[in-house]
Amino acid sequence: MSRHSRPTAIVVAAVLLLVAFAAAGCSKSGPASADVIARVNGVDILKATIDKQIAQMKVQSPKTFESTQGVQIEQQYRAQLLDNLIRQELVNEAAKSLGVTVTTKQVDDYVTGLEQQYGSKAALETAMKTAGIDATALREQITNSLLTDAVSSKVATGGAAPTATQIKAYYNANKSQFGTPAQVHAEHILLATKDKALAQTVLAKVKAGGNFATLAKQYSTDPGTKDNGGDLGWAAPSAYVTEFADAVDSMKVGDVKLVQSQFGWHIVKLLGRRAATQQTLQQATAAVTQTLQQNARSDAFAQYLAGLRKKATIEIFDKKLESLINAVSASSGTKTP
User: Fold this and answer.
1) Within a 10 A sphere around the Cβ of 287, how many other Cβ atoms?
2) Does 1.10.4030.10 match the CATH number of domain 9-160+287-332?
């Protein structure tokens, strides 16, 4: 199923693979060599850092790199990773000049937050293993992200508060952001495709009055939900794979149904339904104001980084990657020197 009630945190962690491992990937410069792919104000960025991250991405999504455009896609990712490493080095230097640091406790607290979102330390470690991220890499990524946020908070402000006209325009252009689609509350017990007979046996136990949560803990193979009795929480049917979505769409509250998907056999019980809702402009004003202020800060930080980049001495020794980076950044006026 496309959704097993997993938090979005690991998505963030996976995306952070594209954030530079500054500590591991940079060193004080010496003579240029094949090991050095770029240099930022005298600090070397190592080719091995990008190679490591590409290798992780290939483990996570091998088909992406096996397609007919695999080589081109890999080069694009390499350019993006290198650009992020350059950006991170500029942030690191800015942090030093501004006296901004990230403490071990801040990183510890962030990791603790992830563990709470996943329900346990073990669950987070399982998700990290699936994503190809070890504890050291995760902490480096978190440190870089927190450092970037801290520098941004120091140098970028939201400026003037948005006007009523700006708030209304944003709301009208993004109404879906302030609405909630119809949702269902379901629970399921997942069994392997080969275990159809067992699935039918468990289904019979549920229909005979067996405790669903107890049976889920005993039989379900879904590590994301079995420990909480198979509860998937509230979600739009579209969050699930087609077969599961079709089932919950057609079920009445209290119904139990056996459904097959690419993940195996699901014993599904529908616990509730919620109608779609839409916030009014008045109800959404606070959230729109916050979003517009965040966007303003983001734009200000982007301009700040562009200024740092313009002043920096940046050498890229892989000209193909340099061309790709320049092609992407030219429109924003941040072309690498």
Assistant:
1) 15
2) yes
Domain ranges for the chain, please list them: 9-160+287-332, 182-275
Mean per-residue pLDDT, 21-50: 75
Kind and range of the H or E element at 88?
helix 70-98
CB 313 within 8 A of CB 41: yes
For residue 25, which of 56, 51, 3, 60 has the smallest C-alpha distance?
51
135-194 pLDDT, tens digit per residue, is 998 999 999 999 999 999 999 976 789 999 999 999 999 999 999 999 999 999 999 999
Burial class (CB in 10 A: 0-12, 13-18, 19+), 65: middle
Q: How far apart are CA 165 and CA 169, in angstroms?
A: 6
Neighbours of 252 (CB within 10 A): 7
For the domain made up of 182-275, the CATH class stated in words is alpha beta
Contact present, 118 and 9 (Cβ < 8 Å): yes
Q: Report yes or no: 89 and 82 within 8 Å, Cβ to Cβ.
A: no
* Burial per residue of 45-61, b for 16 or more beta-carbon CB atoms within 10 angstroms, e otherwise: bbbebbebbbebbbeee
With tokens 């992780």, the residue in question is 56
Structure tokens of 146?
Answer: 């927190």
User: Residue 309: what are its φ and ψ, rounded to 5°?
Assistant: -65, -40
Q: State how far the Cα of 24 lies from the Cα of 34, in Å rounded to an integer.
A: 17
Cβ atoms of residues 39 and 314 within 8 Å: yes
